[in-house]
Amino acid sequence: MECQKLDALKVTEPEPTPKQDALDSPIDKFDLEYNMNHTKRGKALIFSHWKFEQNLRLPDRDGTDSDCTNLSNTLSRMNFDVSVEKDLTYAQMSQTLRKVSAADHTN
User: Fold this and answer.
1) Rounded to whole angstroms, how far apart are CA atoms 28 and 15?
2) What's 1's DSSP letter?
3) Contact present, 21 and 60 (Cβ < 8 Å)
């Protein structure tokens, strides 16, 4: 795969591949910025964890509620469809991600 060099950073990025008709989308896999020009900005999932599974032996995370509120408000003002999920297990997060990824996200 050919790469192009980014000027001062000496970082390489893969060359964008042409979009396939079946995946006609305003967002390309290699875009450096999220396209904010479509009517529906998309789904924003926030996984907020105050308590963790006991076997992880992690302390409760104070401040998660205010972080979650601030992030949710910011994304909502940017016209994202925000969903907040609190204290989910790994299995519940995986199920949520599978469900959301299978949904229709077209404009």
Assistant:
1) 11
2) -
3) no
